[in-house]
Amino acid sequence: MLNGLWLGFFVVAMVSALAQWLVGGNAGIFAAMVESIFAMAKLSVEVMVLLFGTLTLWLGFLRIAEKAGIVDWLAKALGPLFRRLMPEVPAGHPAIGLITLNFAANGLGLDNAATPIGLKAMKALQELNPLPTTASNAQILFLVLNASSLTLLPVTIFMYRAQQGAADPTLVFLPILLATSASTLVGLLSVAVMQRLRLWDPVVLAYLIPGALMLGGFMALLATLSATALAGLSSILGNLTLFGLIMLFLLIGALRKVKVYEAFVEGAKEGFDVAKNLLPYLVAMLCAVGVLRASGALDFGLEGIRHVVAWTGMDTRFVDALPTAMVKPFSGSAARAMLIETMQTQGVDSFPALVAATIQGSTETTFYVLAVYFGSVGIQRARHAVGCALLAEFAGVVAAISVCYWFFG
């Protein structure tokens, strides 16, 4: 699937360039495409330098959290909830701890670091699967929650915005938090309907109702603020949460007698290994997207969508962010490339770039997650996983666009 997507970018770009040359007489289109390839290759390395630091930094702090027992505490705290949502998983099973750690990495926006942990969790759930080639209910719920993008602190989005020169990289903190809440809620509800999960169970309600009330109250508070005040609050909370989490990990680690520096270095080494493997994918996708833009094909497609949207009477500013939304279900690296390209062409703090960043932070690579997670344990029948995951993805995109109009419109 990814192979076809990548090849398709170049084929579409070639067809568009030939049309511009033969029909429009633009002989310089090929020079622009070649120049774009080298420019994007250079940009890939520049982005990777900061990505090295970001992944290394956060995996270091995550290792401190592991050694301090924070992850184990979370597993125990969430144990009663998971026992209701995944009744076939026995209490104290290693899968619960791995699922919790995976959600923690996803919550920090470390999607690339979360994948190896998620694969371990899927294998642990496979040990309990009575039908090895068919996805179990627990595996489907785990995958759909992953596909709904449980991002509470999107540090990699902050990193991309910082690399592109944003004055305040954390400006999209609250929009992403609200949009990812919508996608996760839709994902959970869709699986609950398909699996007939008892969400009205007193234990489940004890977890969900306080969270829903807090989110509802928070949104009611936000509704009283102006767009300027909303942007300012998002910035303050983003930076405060980011630094507060670092201090929490360090202080609890110190109180638990963890050698925080050594633990950080140990985790950081893993981050370096994860990051260095991403460069080939980033170069491949950024160059393909650059060629697509330089050929005029991307602009042509977006103009068509923009005319349709304008015909309905809707505002069209979000249309330039749609490339990120359209490729995100298939490839995280392609969506990342689309996001960076939108920031470069539209401006890092432009409305389309803010929408694209929010979409990137509140959606997941649905088909990639399905292929990798289920493929790693030999599952061939996904049952209702695809439909529920795509529904959560769609909810995340719609919520991201709506929230950005609320905050930045």
From TrEMBL:
The keyword Membrane applies. Keywords: Membrane, Transmembrane, Transmembrane helix. GO terms for cellular component: plasma membrane. This is Spore maturation protein. It holds the Pfam family Gate. It comes from the Bacteria. Residues 51-159, 276-379 form the Nucleoside transporter/FeoB GTPase Gate domain. PANTHER family: INNER MEMBRANE PROTEIN YJIG. The lineage of its organism: Bacteria, Pseudomonadati, Pseudomonadota, Gammaproteobacteria, Pseudomonadales.
